[in-house]
Amino acid sequence: CASLGAIGLTTTLQKRISQPILELATVATAVSERQDYSVRATKHGADEIGQLTEAFNLMLTRIGESSTALIASEERLRLALEGSQTGTWDWNLFTGGITWDDYMYPLFGRQKGEFGGTVDSFIKLVHPEDRARLERETACALERRENIVVDFRIIDSDGTIRHMASRGRGFYNAEGRAVRMSGVSMDVTASKKNEEDLSRAKEMAEAANNAKDNFLAILS
């Protein structure tokens, strides 16, 4: 009688507890391996296991909605970066490694294999006359905990000089030590050329105005 009772109790527990938990484990594995948040566990009854299953399915719904929103946000960011010809970068201050997104390589006129992902390999891309200023302004921004806003020139592989603008901010640990810096870079060569053209046009206008004044003075 005890054996039969134990068998009956085991069978009942198998149906009411073990089976739903195994189904939850199967669904969790599917979500983990395939990143598929559309799967759901079958609810068996309204007991504690049923409430756990319902809460688990609700969690999957929330995660799925967040994942969809994140994907849409990343797509909008990608389109914005692509349209504005802007690249993003991340600098690990502990290791010195620099990570570029896919837009940074064409922005700096380099292939992925041509950038070493280190501070030294980045500095080599910068015009020699701008290197010390770039390093100095970066160090000051980190020390003062300010956002960095810096313009500098780079030299393409064919020797062409272009103007770049970078904006970034530092991140600090609990002890107040800077651990990383992230930001964006963009090509501002066209705007720099427009500024130079406007400056030259202004100088020419001022020179013509001075020549007119001198002529009138002499004529007077």
Short description:
This protein is of the alpha+beta class. Helix content is 58%, strand content 18%.
Characteristics of this structure?
single chain, 220 residues, alpha+beta, five-stranded antiparallel β-sheet, 5 strands, elongated
Describe this structure in words.
A hairpin with a 5-residue loop joins strand 1 and strand 2. By secondary structure, this protein is of the alpha+beta class. It has a 5-stranded antiparallel sheet, sandwiched between helices. Helix 1 packs parallel to helix 2.
Break the fold down into its secondary structure elements and pairings:
Layout lengths: L1 H33 L13 H37 L1 E7 L5 E3 L3 H4 L11 H5 L4 H17 L3 E8 L5 E12 L5 E10 L1 H31 L1
Antiparallel strand pairs: 1-2, 1-5, 3-4, 4-5
Oligomeric nature of the chains: single chain
Query: What are the secondary-structure elements, in order, as H or E?
Result: HHEEHHHEEEH
Give the integer mean of the pLDDT values. Answer: 80
Shape estimate: elongated
Structural class: alpha+beta
Radius of gyration: 31 Å
